[in-house]
Every structure is written in C-alpha cells, then in structure tokens.
Amino acid sequence: MNDQELNDLLKSAPVPRRTATARHDFIATVVRRLRCGDGAVRTEALGWVPVGVWGWGLAAAGVVLVAGFAFFAAHRPSARDSAATEEAALWQQLARMFPRQLKAVVLEGGNTRLILSEQADQPLAKPIRVQLGQGPRWCSVITFSGQSVKAEGVDFEVLSDADDHVWLIGERAVWSSADASRRFGELAVKANVLEVPL
Amino acid sequence: MDQQDDERQWVRRSRGGDPEAFGVLVERYEGMVHTLTYRMTGSLADAEDVAQEVFLRAYDRLANLREEGKFAAWLRQIAVNTSLNWLKRQKHREALARRWAAEAEGPRQAGYERSEPDDERAQRVTAALLRLPAKQRAAVVLTLCEGLSHGEAARALGCAEATVSWRVFAARAKLKRWLRP
Asked: What global pTM score does this model have?
C-alpha cells in the first residue's frame, strides 16, 4: 500500500451517520446545558478518577521505592560506563516482577519511577535506553519504541525506525540518534538499545 | 451578507451570553465535531459526550477567540484537545478497542444509521486508528482524514510542525501494515 492509497482509504472511510432527530436532540441538549450554566457538573464528570487507579498507583509506588532503594544500596554506581549495565540489571529485575507489564523506568534525581501497564500486553523486545541531561544533571529512561514518557520536565515519545535510529518526538523539539550531536530542546541526549536477554 | 459575516454575527451574539445564538453555531459545526471526536474515540457514545464537552468549553472560552472569522479552526482545536484529554483519562487503549468492538458488533446505537456498504472498511480504519498512540492518532485524523496541512495541524495541536510530520510518518508505517488488504 502506498501513501496515496492509505490517504484515500482514510479519507473515504465513512463515520456512522446520525439521524436528523439525534442531531436536533444534540443541539437542544447543548443549548439547554448552557442555559442552566452547567459548568460544575461537567468539571466533576471530567475530573473523576476510578478508585482502582489510585490503589494500583500507590501499590506500584511502594514496590518501586523498595526495589529502587534495595537496588541502589547494593549497586551504587561508581562510573558512568557501568551505569548502563546496572540499569539493564534493574530493568531485568523489574521485568521479572511485572512480566510484560513494564512500560518504562525513569531514573531521575536519585529516584526511580516505574510506569506499568495494567495488563500483560507489553512487547517482547529489547528496550531503548535514553539519557537526557544538561551540565552535570542527567537522567535515564528505559522504555520501548512507541511509549510516551515524561522526564526532565519534558513530555516526549520514543520511537525507533527501520535503521535502528532512536527518535524522540516532543511537543517543541525532535531528536534523532542519526544526528546525535543535536540537542533536544535544551537537553543533550544519548540513546541506544539496551542489551538485555529476552 | 456572506456566510463569514453571518458567522461573525452569531459569534458576537454568543459572546454576549446568548445560548440560542450559539445553538446556530452548534448546528453548523456539530457534524465536523462529531466526525473528529468519533475518529479520536472510536465509540459512538463517547464521541457524543466529548462533542458536548467541546461545545460547552467553546462557549465558556469564546472570549479567547481572537478572530471571529476563524471560529471553525478554533473549534477544531478545542475538539482535538478535548479528545486528547479524554484519551489521557482513558489510559488503556485496549479497553477502548474492546468497547469499540462491542459497539461495532452489537446493535447500532439509537440515533445512528448503518452506513453500509462501507461498514467493513470503516470498521477496519477505526480499529487501526484506535491502535495508534493518541497523539499520533490526532495527527493522522487532522492531516490524513481532515485534510489539514502539517502546519495547520501543528497550530491545532499546539506543537511544532516537525513534530506533526514525525507523528504522521510513524503512524503511516503502522497503518500501512495494519490496513494491508
């Protein structure tokens, strides 16, 4: 399939048609809600977070704190070139604890942050290690291609292409390992595939 | 009076706190907003809820609309960002895909007509769009489905044009694989 065929397919795929009555009801509902000054209701409706999500988050945070503390106490890094090996070991350790659930590990400012999927749906692939920094301050992100991560205050997606180049796609900047000397916004970046047994 | 002058008048009256005047704008753009929210959420029920939210937000923020003649572009920006926020709350795309599959297989929701003979093709496209990460999906919906330029999509999404280009590039490769006949 070429680009033009894909464009044609996407443009021509119809969305379900709504009946005239449904359209009329929709307009009437919006106007009625505006007349009633419905602001508080919709803020509440959007701000709701399922209790289970908090529970899951707290449980994961607890596990991460314990795992992170134990790891750093036992493996205090002595040089930057050993950091990759240690981070690979951390990844493997966490991947064993959460099989196919581990989406990303962010090591930032001495803290370890874990991002998990609720289901065991993550790819069986070698993870990508991205290091971002400015001056002496560096952080590491270990994740898979296609994941969105926040580190050093920046939201970005990590992608790898067919040539094994790593791409960071942010709101304001793009970085590629094909041109690794360029900065990602304010940040210098290093990225490579992490060698861990699958 | 041309359509743009006419629209400016409805925008001005809406800004003055006239919900009925805003109703005219809702009538004019509900199709555009529904199409976008459906492509972003993949669910008829959710598209309806998000579309309502879009218009309520737009009414609240009319004071921020700088150019009254660009209401449609401004509304599209609210629609795509409201959809993205909604997707952020619906963190698990798989749950979304399951809900979409249940809707696709079950009886058609009240208020919607079956769009045969294109249903099968539409379902494949919707399923493929739902597998994309939300931001890539937004870039594809705005550029490939809605026909916006990368620059226009970047303005709607509040990001750099290069970011949109790369999101479209990454999404294209996946969509070609998933939609291969």
From this structure: 0.57
